[in-house]
Amino acid sequence: HFDTTEVNHAGIYLMGGDNEFAQIASDAGYSKVLNTEPMSMVSVDGVDYTTPMPLGFSISSLAEDSNPQKVHRLLYRGFNHGDEPEESCDDGIADREFMQSAPNFDPLLNVVAVAPNGDWVSYCGMWYESNGKYGYVEPVATDPDYRLRGIGKAVVTEGIRRCKQMGAEVAYVGSTQPVYLSIGFRQVYTLEKWLKRSS
Known about the structure:
The protein is α+β, with helices and mostly antiparallel strands. Helices cover 27% and strands 33% of the residues. The protein has helices at residues 19-27, 68-78, 90-100, 151-166, 178-183; strands at residues 5-8, 11-15, 30-43, 58-61, 111-114, 120-129, 134-142, 170-173, 186-196.
């Protein structure tokens, strides 16, 4: 299933309680920092895929429209950065384009909820790992004006459904927020962040 290590630009993540990998990381010059992340899992067969959308709302994906400006605006608002991104938001748009250029990025798995007026109001990014037969939920955001209507839950369950169709047996998310627990996710371990010690 999910690998016990995950590399990113700032260091590595190890599964909490894995003393063998912790020793290997320490011997390789890494130190654990106080940054941990809960990792939750759900069996795709245990998810209720009938989460309703409010009347007039629809689900689409980046396969239909991969507009990085729309993605950036939704994630900017959804992660509470402010009302609107600045007009000169080239860095944010470049980040979205970079995300969409990842080797295992699948636009069909990146689900958006569309309001009756055409605005994108909720986003669920999904990543499918065929070797481990799992989906990974990241990122998820809902526009503050559209929260508490079940829209975020609907896009997440749709993303999981699409991963299931591709062969996923489980899905993971780095969170224990209530919306994920309501879908059926349960924490299975904690990721611990390790950084390379300076020489």
